[in-house]
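Ticket 4471: requesting a sanity check on a complex prediction with pyridoxal-5'-phosphate. Repro inputs:
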Amino acid sequence: MTEKNNLLSLHPETLAIRAGLEASQFHEHSQGLYLTSSFTFDTAEEGAAMFIGQKPGYTYSRFTNPTVNAFQERLAALEGAERAIATASGMAAIQACMMSLLKAGDHIVASQSLFGSTINLFSGTLSKFGIETTFVDAGDQQAWRAAVKPTTRLFFLETPSNPLTEVADIAAIADIAHEADALLVVDNCFCSPALQQPLKLGADLVVHSATKYLDGHGRVLGGAVVGSSALIEPIYLHVRTAGPSLAPFNAWVLLSGMETLFIRMEKQCASALELARWLEAHPAIERVFYPGLASHPQHALAMRQQKLGGAVVSFVVKGGREAAWQLVDGVEVISRTANLGDVKSTITHPASTTHARITQEAREKAGIVEGLLRVAVGLEHVDDLKNDIARGLC
Ligand SMILES: *Cc1c(COP(=O)(O)O)cnc(C)c1O
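Returned structure tokens:
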């Protein structure tokens, strides 16, 4: 076993680079990649002690691996948490959280503007196992309160929402959850800990799709749940038993991505704000959704709760689907793909991709109109992004 860095008094920018590093007897400077499924014991007695948790040490990579451990420690440090458990993807993190903390008969209250697969997990898979979900408008605190039942155990919130960037008040919703003796879980994928630390605002657990901003380069899938040791322990035991574990190679890639998290987020948010302002002034644009704009309905809350407005800008072009598709087809720099969180900017038409499986009526009600486009701003020069978008607007 190796010595741990104890760096928790340092700034988050430093933790993103230094926290969790675990060097072997070779004193390597970069985090080592431990591609091994199992670890050996010196004696049978030592093996026995390690398996029942009497002696610390690595046994099997489904639940203990030094590279994965380094990722967990670094993410926990960034979220200001005691502990993190890594998972194979963001969805595996959400699933592990629900499977370990809830049982048949329990009830979830969740914001309605969630990542599509999260909605499917709640209303499909979990409901099949007797866990029901009520979806509410995230900004309507009365609706959260009214949805509580005697069986409510957990609140689930994503803020800002995708693609309309609605911002919900984490502290206020945490209070409502705690009055109901329920836990608040926040999906912090859009902001990353560089912009928002939900645990400090009263949330009990944070889930991540590390696939997005933590990697930052669109390379690997990964996820994590972060929180107090007491809440993470049952989730760890579930991952240990059920196996939705993060691969050491992916953890190693994520660790290098996290080293540049802060500088990427700052630059991507600055470019997003500039792009949002430019779009807002463009005559071919009907409306822009970006928390950093004064015109955003929850601008004041966003600026209180998040460090910056985020890197996702959504906007409605005049002329409906035809105009939106023309813009999408016209881009030569921005990638036509539904992913986000990459240094490469991406553009998506939500009505025909991420939200295509719901009815037109439900889409319109959710504000996913035919002219809506979502740009996840990367690290290219912002003028190149403006020119790329302008090409499709004339
Ligand atoms: C992508 C995403 C997820 C799911 O993460 P995967 O790593 O793709 O499984 C969950 N929540 C949000 C907000 C996401 O954007």
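Notes from triage: The two ends are 62 Å apart (CA to CA). Leaving this open until the requester confirms.
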